[in-house]
Specification:
- The structure holds 3 protein chains of 3 kinds.
- By secondary structure, chain B is mainly alpha-helical.
- Helix content of chain B is 72%, strand content 3%.
- Chain B is globular, with a radius of gyration of 19 Å.
- The N and C termini of chain B lie far apart (44 Å).
- Chain C has a 6-stranded mixed beta sheet with strand order 6-7-8-3-9-10, sandwiched between helices. A 4-stranded antiparallel beta sheet of chain C has the order 2-1-4-5, covered by helices on one side.
- The two termini of chain C are 33 Å apart.
- The chains are: A mainly alpha, B mainly alpha, C alpha/beta.
- Chains A and B meet through helix 6, helix 12 and helix 14 of A and helix 4, helix 10 and helix 12 of B.
Chain lengths: 334, 290, 251
């Protein structure tokens, strides 16, 4: 049997199709349209909206390591909290310029990510999972005990955040909303770029079959460490945003609750799709709002139940659900 | 000098008691992780369940100590069977993430359920008069109950080792941990084995939780609050091993007690740092499989 | 004596009390067509794992074109041209055929770590990957996910990925294993048409394949080399016959 030779035209078509995957799809504009729209439709909820935007960024950073590199972590709040405390400490000790504060927080969080990742990523499975928890818990303990610096259990107050680019942070959250939105947008561009780059594709390879990646000459450890560091920096930005827009940093930014919550938010939306956080974060916050109304003490029960149900019946979250729906509709259409 | 010696003895003693509790709870997790490759973050729930049942039997129903503890263990073992067969089994061999999420979800649910049924406060735990007070061991006095804890822990550990080394059940577990497919082709009924091993592990956890209620208080958040310690014992000890977690529990129990006594301002910080160092040196744990 | 493409000296490894590799001395000449045969459990795949760096030996040396690579990580050995395929297909099942090969070619070109430009912009890499698919006759399924392909064609993708790494030494671990005989013809043909510059070591159980492809055969038993030589010698060797007692004898 001779090898089939596809015509040059067919070859070019395939190569073209393959090379175009990263082109912007019109649906990718939806989140930004919604973001702008929400500003006009919900003028009373802008402060909350800013929180949601910052949390989406947090979820996006987790998606990079969980959804793309396949690193399961229970301690992502470590980087979020580091960013929050660094930004908070800067503002509390005389340097309240927000954007530089963001950058310093990102660098600090990335540094923590690099150092912890260099240790943690040498392990795998349960050990890796446990070590991510250990790192976050260590930082929590440190923040808890270092009361003179962090304010301990009372939290860090006395933050004086200066106006950003001339805009003073107002009581309605207008400036905070656009500030967080801009940070999210910039980070999204970075994330999207990474995901579609050869580096990003190699992360997908690492997640799909790590053994094979070693066998094609990929420096697996360094690639994972790189994305871990970048994601840590992004999570730090998210933490800093929360700190700056609320002018307060509590211990909760480093807690297991925070790590668990962002994990759940991402799962609800769907991991590895880049937009999972955009869906999962608002979904979670709406659910939390609704359940807290009905039964505030037992929120834990309901979110636990939702988690179990999602894992068993709706793996892949909202995106996975949409995938199956589309497939079923396509089959019916035939 | 005498003070330092007395302090050291105290730390060793209380650390040992703590270690026994940690080991009893964690050994089941090590076995199921090594056997089924299943990440069960809800393992602590069985320890708490054992504690809740035992303390309720003792304080509300007036059941004496030993039967109450047995009741807790039995309840946990019975509850574990449908959980393993209907829920966990679906996720064997699946993505680690799914297992993590499922078991965390279950842990969350149990925390809320416990708070609903028993309230937010720690359950009262009163050992029987025979095990209360102080006992003289050699040159000084020690709390009786903790001495009992250490003694029974030692007995149980020995029984476990013998059980694993000498019985057919134990041999099957060891074989299946080493190579599941091979064990299946030799005729081991891995399905039944898993259920039994899981029940055994859950029972042991319940035993640890109920006996150890004096050290680790039985409260709604038990499973999640102490999760990190159980995970440390299992990871440092080595998955699938029975002896590894024992030494890891000893290290963790004594070190934690020591650090909390000598450097209370730092809390558990040094424990975590030590864990990082140990796993940096031995990523598979001290006794882990290659 | 000219430099071997691949050589091991005294390679040994133990799993506890079990010696899975027992003092193996092995030479693979440049441009070789060499087969490694032996009964199940003889340690053939273990040998490949040791040579490629997936396992660490307890003793011995591994030399690639005269350089000692015993301490090198797996990925670094690949960069030097030591490439393997897996006995059970180890591909990126959720990704397309073209992407599987593109990843390999991209790594070889050294652009795997590029974070800035989209992977689609590297058309030279993609074109090279596609050309490989054409050579192996699987270009028509370039954009389909690997898991949707027939198993025999998946094995071809394995070979495409291996070739995409521009190997100097190619270790094929049972390339036709699990492939229905209707499809294995293509695989055998592809192996026969491999560039003569590549030194090829095949692990195989199928004796027809071995005697058709190999110019030299090494027989392994219980982690050690039993005998080595050209096919006719091996076929006539009574020890080999004894080892395969009960198995189909070569014609």
């Amino acid at each position: 049997m001779t090898a089939e030779t596809a015509t040059p035209l067919a070859a070019a078509a395939v190569i073209d199709a393959f090379s175009r995957r990263h082109r912007l799809h019109w649906a990718e504009a939806i989140p930004w349209v919604l973001m702008v729209g929400a500003y006009f439709v919900f003028p009373d909820y802008l402060a909350l909206g800013a929180q949601v935007l910052a949390t989406i960024l947090f979820g996006l950073s987790l998606d990079l390591i969980l959804g793309y590199a396949g690193i399961v972590t229970l301690g992502h709040a470590a980087f979020f909290g580091t960013g929050a405390y660094v930004a908070g400490l800067l503002a509390a000790h005389g340097w309240g310029e927000p954007i530089t504060g963001l950058l310093v927080a990102a660098l600090a969080a990335a540094a923590v990510g690099f150092v912890s990742g260099a240790v943690v990523l040498r392990t795998q499975g349960l050990t890796l999972l446990m070590l991510t928890l250990v790192v976050a818990t260590m930082l929590y303990e440190a923040a808890n005990k270092a009361t003179p610096i962090t304010g301990g259990a009372d939290g860090l107050g006395g933050m004086d955040v200066w106006p950003v680019l001339g805009f003073r942070f107002d009581l309605f959250g207008k400036v905070a909303y656009w500030y967080c939105g801009a940070a999210l947008f910039a980070s999204w561009i970075v994330a999207r770029n990474i995901v579609h780059s050869p580096f990003g594709r190699s992360l997908t390879g690492i997640r799909e079959n790590e053994r094979r990646m070693h066998a094609i000459g990929s420096p697996v450890f360094w690639r994972r460490l790189a994305i871990y560091t970048i994601a840590a920096g992004m999570a730090g930005v998210a933490g800093a945003l929360i700190a700056q827009t609320t002018a307060f940093v509590g211990l909760g930014v480093l807690s297991f609750d925070r790590s668990g919550a962002v994990l759940i938010m991402l799962i609800l939306g769907g991991v590895g799709r880049l937009y999972g956080a955009f869906i999962g974060v608002p979904l979670y916050m709406i659910l939390q709002d609704q359940f807290a109304e009905v039964d505030p003490v037992y929120w834990y029960f309901w979110i636990g139940l939702i988690l179990v149900l999602v894992v068993v019946f709706a793996p892949g979250g909202a995106f996975g659900f949409a995938d199956r729906l589309i497939r079923r509709l396509r089959r019916r259409a035939r | 000098m005498a003070d330092a010696f007395a302090a050291a003895v105290s730390i060793l003693f209380h650390g040992l008691a703590f270690a026994m509790v940690l080991y009893l709870v964690s050994v089941g997790l090590s076995v199921t992780m090594g056997l089924m490759g299943f990440v069960n973050l809800a393992h602590g729930v069985f320890a708490a369940a054992g504690g809740y049942v035992a303390t309720t039997l003792m304080s509300r129903v007036g059941v004496p100590f030993a039967p109450a503890i047995a009741g807790g263990v039995l309840a946990a073992m019975i509850a574990s069977v449908p959980l393993e067969r209907w829920l966990y089994r679906r996720l064997y061999g699946k993505d680690e993430l799914d297992q993590v999420l499922l078991t965390i979800g279950l842990a969350f649910m149990s925390v809320a359920a416990a708070k609903f049924v028993w309230g937010p406060l720690a359950q009262p735990f009163h050992p029987p008069p025979a095990l209360s007070g102080q006992i003289e061991l050699g040159f000084r006095e020690f709390p009786t109950y903790r001495s009992f804890l250490i003694a029974s822990g030692a007995v149980l550990v020995t029984a476990l080792w013998l059980g694993l080394e000498r019985t057919r059940f134990g041999a099957q577990i060891r074989a299946a941990v080493d190579n599941r497919r091979m064990a299946q082709s030799v005729g081991v009924n891995t399905s039944l084995l898993f259920t039994c091993a899981f029940a055994l592990g859950s029972g042991l956890a319940a035993l640890g939780g109920s006996l150890g209620a004096e050290i680790l208080a039985i409260e709604p958040g038990y499973a999640l609050e102490h999760l990190i310690y159980f995970l440390i014992v299992v990871s440092v000890g080595g998955l699938g091993s029975i002896s590894g977690p024992f030494f890891a529990a000893l290290f963790l129990g004594v070190a934690d007690t020591g650090f909390k006594y000598l450097l209370p301002e730092f809390g558990a910080f040094f424990i975590y740092a030590l864990t990082l160092v140990i796993l940096l040196w031995r990523p598979r744990g001290l006794f882990g499989h290659a | 004596m000219s430099e071997a493409a691949l050589e091991t000296q005294g390679l040994s490894m133990s799993f506890g009390a079990l010696r899975v590799a027992n003092d193996i001395d092995f030479r693979l000449e440049p441009g070789a067509r060499h087969a490694l045969i032996g009964p199940n459990g003889a340690g053939k795949t273990t040998f490949v794992n040791l040579v490629t760096g997936a396992l660490q030996p307890s003793a011995g040396r591994i030399m690639l074109a005269g350089h000692d690579i015993t301490r090198l990580a797996q990925a670094q050995r690949v960069k030097r041209g030591l490439v393997r395929t897996f006995q059970i297909t180890a591909l990126f099942r959720g990704l397309s055929v073209l992407e599987n090969v593109t990843l390999a070619v991209g790594e070889r070109h050294g652009v795997g770590g590029d974070m800035l430009r989209p992977s689609g912009s590297r058309r030279a890499v993609i074109a090279e990957a596609y050309a490989l698919l054409e050579r192996l006759g699987i270009a028509d399924e370039a954009l389909r996910p690997v898991k949707e392909l027939a198993y025999g064609r998946q094995r071809l993708v394995e070979i495409a990925v291996a070739l995409g790494l521009d190997p100097k030494v190619l270790l094929l671990d049972e390339p036709a294993a699990g492939v229905p005989s209707a499809e294995s013809g293509t695989i055998i043909e592809m192996i026969e048409r491999l560039p003569t510059g590549i030194a090829v070591l095949i692990i195989e159980h199928d004796m027809d394949l071995v005697f058709r492809l190999a110019r030299r055969i090494t027989v392994m038993v219980q982690g050690a080399v039993l005998v080595e030589g050209p096919p006719q010698e091996i076929a006539a060797d009574p020890r080999v016959r004894q080892v395969y007692l009960g198995e189909r004898e070569p014609a």
